[in-house]
Amino acid sequence: RPSCPPGTAPPPGPKGLPILGSMLDIPPHHSWLKFFTWSKTFGPLFEINIAGKPHIILSTEKIANDLLRERGSLYSSREQLPMAVQLVSDNLRSLFLPYDSLWRRNRKLMHHLTMASAATSYQSVQEEESLRVLRDLMREPGEYERWFERYAAGLMMRLVFGKKVITGKERVLERIFKVVHNVERVASPGAYLVDVLPWLMWIPSWFPGAGFKREGYRLHAEELDLFRGLQNDVRKEIAGREKEGVDGGEKGNFTEIFLNSQEKWDLSDDEGAYVVGTLFEAGAGTTSAAMMSFMLAMVLHPSALHAMREEINKVVGPDRLPTFDDIPNLPRVRATIKETMRWRPVTAGGVPHLLIKDDVYELDEKKYFLKAGTNIHANQWAIHREPDLYPNPEDFIPERWLDPSLPTYKEPLSVYPNLQNFSAFGFGRRICPGMNIAERSLNILVARIVWGCEIERVGGYEYGEYEYTTGFNVQPLKFPFRLRAREGMGEVVEREYGRVWSKVLGEKMRE
Ligand code: HEM
């Protein structure tokens, strides 16, 4: 590349075609598998060109941290895709914001809502919701996708808007999921020509070729209407309480916290609505996807389930459900969750960061020139398969987090393994702000399922090696398994369920 400064070289990578670059070599789905294969030829930092745009793929944790974390002021932006970011999100969606003042103000509010101390205060909600999933899973295991989706969305709905989800089929959930699916679709690489040819944005929206613009405006109007409506509902509840003389204070759901201290965050109503809306969007599908991979891991690796069961039998016993107080004493449960997220990462290709200034990175005594405007992908699939860090990377080995002779072991086991700063949640300043909440959601639900359920594969069924959905957040395609309550546990669950949920569901429960 002629533009490389003296003494530097462009990163290695596949040659590709003129104009299209490597576009035709990248499969439309699960591109991380191809990138992993390329990393074996071109090394842990390589560059590809897709229709004129440079992309750098990182395949080790060290390089990802060296760049995305240690040089965070350069590597924390996002590409401003015309369709997904500008038209549909109207430059408001936190996940897509460039590295600027609005993003910083967004992140401050997010941090306030999701930091460890705040996350701990939501644990009672997670205990309630996980009890409900456990009961439904015992009664109708074949509906497991529905239960996990309702769990994750129901939790977020309560935390973000203070609304309880009862059936999982509520109209408001349908509307939010429609928004989430639209965002995934419009942000998919290659979905819109305007993302490749940005000058198309200059076409007026009434022009026959500007259908994308009209669609973008329509999708934005729909989501703004939804987010504003949800915010207004909370506003009305606050007003209602004030009328009755009840003080909501700094507590309450995320929207309420935002509205009660709006000046502190320096965000407009719509900006705040997008912060909490983004938290919902980013938190629901990811958590349920992780749970589905966990179930698959249990079906395929019964010894991992049995080992956790032994731990839980000792720590919890048969007469009560596991609670958050047990989590420090359940390192094997935490190790198995972490191993699931290593083995089958939810955001397997990572969420790309945009480099905003030319940079040079030295690797194996070579200086590579990384150009401003490059998309940097920390490929989790490859990073989680680094053999030095994860011996026998294709195998499911929860012990790698528990055995002092293995490189990922860390003490004390009352704290480690945990999901803090784990590569599955991204890197640097953009790292997932929801990890404290996600970690707790997974810990409690997994502990309860292991405590209460026998899970087995269906004999004769061929479980594929990697049969996963397409998109950014991936989960296994629906698979069969047998699940039944362990002897006596079903009764404990029914008793607790009646105690905790009868008030909430009232008549509905007795039906
Ligand atoms: C198992 C569950 C989850 C996984 C695997 C996950 C993973 C990720 C990843 C990889 C990123 C991109 C990080 C980067 O750019 O380097 C991200 C961003 C984000 N996550 Fe999560 N996440 C999960 C749960 C959650 C939850 C529960 C919430 C909300 C409570 C949440 C909110 C967000 C937000 C708002 C962003 C955008 C941050 C930004 O761009 O500044 N996530 N997540």
TrEMBL record:
Cofactor(s) for this UniProt protein: heme
UniProt record similarity statement: Belongs to the cytochrome P450 family.
One Pfam family hit: p450
Protein name: Related to cytochrome p450
Source species: Phialocephala subalpina
PROSITE patterns: CYTOCHROME_P450 (PS00086)
Sequence positions that bind heme: 432
Iron recorded as keyword: yes
Gene Ontology terms for molecular function: heme binding; iron ion binding; monooxygenase activity; oxidoreductase activity, acting on paired donors, with incorporation or reduction of molecular oxygen
Entry keywords, A to Z: Heme, Iron, Metal-binding, Monooxygenase, Oxidoreductase, Signal
CDD domains referenced in this protein's UniProt entry, alphabetically: CYP64-like
Keyword set includes Protease: no
Highest taxon in the source lineage: Eukaryota
